[in-house]
């Protein structure tokens, strides 16, 4: 069994400069990150990550607990801004716009890059009002009929419409966990994001609800770009086309999902996917 002590890892990462695989895409990148470092106070959590997320791809991010997956994901829609001690360096672009530019409207950015969290977090409002919330605050509609249509379409795309169409005025908190998570996905979709970030979206769900969300991810990838953090390698294999392996804040390896899981090029990746580490 191969495990690495922290000293050995420090050695592995000494002079670390390259990622195995192709972190950058030529023509179809929707988001690009270059030289991204993240600090919490003095402590550095992410080291020089270069990674592109392609249009309409599902990119999975995997790696041992504490390796920085959530931290990196949060840099992509500036969710880290909400953490006082957190500082982000490097360049992150969305369709050519520098998202850390002073002129960037962060509320608008978070509509363009939506996020679905580990635990479903519907607002304590009706099912309808949860989905209508974004379109309302972003002033996307003026007429009730338009809003009704957006709400219905988002719920359909999130494959929950049939379960809720007769109870739209009831509290969202009355739904099951899996339904709540699909509602949260509908809420994200309702503002037509370019990218959807998902941080372990199924970890609070049972296997049936998980399967529904995984099917949904496949459907959504036709229209949206998705980056998903998951602890489940089976899930990464099922839903993603590319997988990025993170280790101690570094992007170790990225490539086609089937290649990462069958013929990884880096020992750290291999140790993780074969269960020898993490
Ligand atoms: N708000 C915070 N303040 C200080 N340190 C933090 C904060 N959030 C994360 N960290 C630290 O940053 C590092 C990366 O954490 P992160 O939560 O991004 O890892 P992760 O890969 O998502 O882990 P997990 O798989 O357990 O969710 C860890 O060392 C963690 O302790
Ligand atoms: Mg995490």
From TrEMBL:
CDD domains, A to Z: ABC_PstB_phosphate_transporter (cd03260)
A Gene Ontology cellular-component term: membrane
Keywords: ATP-binding, Nucleotide-binding, Phosphate transport, Transport
PROSITE patterns tied to this protein: ABC_TRANSPORTER_1, ABC_TRANSPORTER_2
UniProt keyword Aminoacyl-tRNA synthetase, yes or no: no
InterPro entries with a match to the protein in the record: AAA+_ATPase, ABC_transporter-like_ATP-bd, ABC_transporter-like_CS, P-loop_NTPase, PstB-like
Example of a GO biological process term: phosphate ion transmembrane transport
GO molecular function annotation: ATP binding; ATP hydrolysis activity; phosphate transmembrane transporter activity
Cited SUPFAM superfamilies: P-loop containing nucleoside triphosphate hydrolases
Top-level lineage group: Bacteria
Domain called ABC transporter: residue spans: 31-273
Protein name in the entry: Phosphate ABC transporter ATP-binding protein (PhoT family)
